[in-house]
Design goal:
333 residues, alpha/beta, Rossmann fold, six-stranded mixed beta sheet, three-stranded antiparallel beta sheet, 11 strands, 45% helix
Length: 333
C-alpha cells in the first residue's frame, strides 16, 4: 500500500499521546477515589466495577482516530483491471515430441487443456490469436475476441513433425503487431488478412506465449533472431518449457526417442523480450502457469485510492464506541 499524502501519517503520533493522557486521567480518578473517606457511602454509589468495559469505548475511539488519520494520507492500493485492448498470441508447439507421455495424458493434450484454463482466467474482451508449429508455422487464428473459435482451433492441434520454433515466433510477432514484416512478403494472403484485422488495433498492447518442449530443428529463423524482432516491436514473449528430461516418444519400431526441452533457449528468449520463463513438468504446473498468465496479460495493474474504506471504518468504530458508552455507563436520555 502507498500513500498520496504520506506527510499526513505524522498525525498518527497523536494516538500514543492520547493514550498517555487517558492513562494519566485514569490514575487521577483512582487517587480521587482513595481520598473519598466515607467508604460505606462509596460502596452504595458504585454498585459495579466497569473494569475492562470502561476502557473499551476510548480504545475504539482511538482506533477510529487512527483510521481517519490514515485516510487523510490518501492510501492507495494496486488493483487488477481488465485491459480494454490487448492482443495475446499463443504459439503452441505441435512437433512429434509433443506426443510424449511424461505429462499425463501427453504433452500436447495437457497444453490444450491449460490453454483453455488461460482463456477461462482472461477478460472476455482479450483478443487471442493462435499459431501452431511443427516443421513450419501455421497461423490458425489472428487475434480475436471470439474465444469459442480459439478453443475450437486448439482442439484441432495434432503432434507431428519437427520444430520450427524461430519461424513460429516470427510469425507470432507479425500477427501481434501490424508494423512487423511478414516473412512471406506483404503480398501474401495471410499478411493481408492479418493487416486488415489489426489495422484498428495499432495502439493495442501485445504479448506472446510460446510453449515448446524441444530444440529448434528446422526453419529459416533462429529463436534468438525472432526474439530480437519481438523486442524491436516491444512485444514481451512468455516462454513455457514443457516436459521432463526423461521424456521419450515412441519411435514406432525404432525404439523410444529422447524428447528433452531446450530450457536455455526458451529462457533466453524471455530475457531478450522482457517476458518471463516458466518450466512445467506436470499438467498441474502447466495449469498454474496459464492461470497466472491469464491474470498477468489480461489485466493491468492500476493504483486505486481507498480513502473511503478507512473513513467508513472510522465512522463504524465511532458509532460502536458511542453506543457502548451510552449503554454501559447510563448515558442514555
Amino acid at each position: 500500500m502507498s500513500f498520496g499524502l504520506p506527510v499526513a501519517l505524522w498525525g498518527l503520533t497523536l494516538i500514543p499521546l492520547a493514550a498517555v493522557l487517558y492513562a494519566l486521567a485514569q490514575r487521577s480518578r483512582t487517587r480521587y477515589a482513595v481520598r473519598f473517606t466515607n467508604l460505606d457511602l462509596l460502596a452504595d454509589l458504585i454498585t459495579k466495577t466497569p473494569r475492562w468495559r470502561r476502557h473499551l469505548p476510548p480504545a475504539l475511539f482511538l482506533l477510529a482516530l487512527g483510521s481517519l488519520l490514515v485516510g487523510l494520507a490518501r492510501p492507495e492500493t494496486i488493483v487488477l483491471v481488465p485491459k480494454d485492448e490487448a492482443n495475446v498470441v499463443l504459439a503452441v508447439d505441435t512437433s512429434g515430441s509433443m506426443a510424449a507421455t511424461d505429462i499425463v495424458p501427453d504433452r500436447l493434450s495437457a497444453a490444450q487443456e491449460a490453454a483453455g484454463s488461460f482463456l477461462d482466467h482472461s477478460p472476455e474482451n482479450l483478443r487471442v490469436g493462435l499459431v501452431a508449429f511443427s516443421g513450419m508455422p501455421v497461423r490458425m487464428l489472428p487475434p480475436t475476441d471470439d474465444q469459442a473459435a480459439v478453443r475450437d482451433s486448439l482442439g484441432l492441434l495434432r503432434a507431428d513433425g519437427g520444430t520450427a520454433m524461430g519461424d513460429a515466433l516470427l510469425h507470432a510477432v507479425q500477427i501481434s503487431s501490424p508494423h512487423a514484416e511478414d516473412p512471406a512478403g506483404k503480398n501474401s494472403p495471410a499478411f493481408a488478412e492479418t493487416e486488415a484485422a489489426l489495422r484498428s488495433q495499432e495502439k493495442s498492447p501485445a504479448a506472446i506465449i510460446l510453449l515448446s518442449d524441444g530444440t529448434n530443428t528446422t526453419g529459416e529463423t533462429t529463436p534468438l533472431q525472432a526474439a530480437q524482432e519481438a523486442r524491436e516491436h516491444n512485444i514481451p514473449v512468455y516462454t513455457v518449457a514443457l516436459g521432463t528430461p526423461e521424456g521419450v516418444v515412441d519411435g514406432i519400431g525404432e525404439g523410444d526417442k529422447p524428447a528433452p526441452s531446450d530450457k536455455q533457449t526458451l529462457r533466453r528468449v524471455a530475457e531478450i523480450t522482457g517476458g518471463r520463463f516458466f518450466a512445467s513438468s506436470s499438467a498441474a504446473d502447466l495449469a498454474r502457469i496459464y492461470d497466472d498468465l491469464g491474470s498477468t496479460l489480461g489485466f493491468a495493474r492500476e493504483k486505486h485510492e481507498i480513502t473511503s474504506a478507512f473513513v467508513a471504518a472510522a465512522c463504524a468504530l465511532l458509532a460502536v464506541s458511542g453506543t457502548l458508552s451510552a449503554l454501559w455507563f447510563n448515558r442514555l436520555p
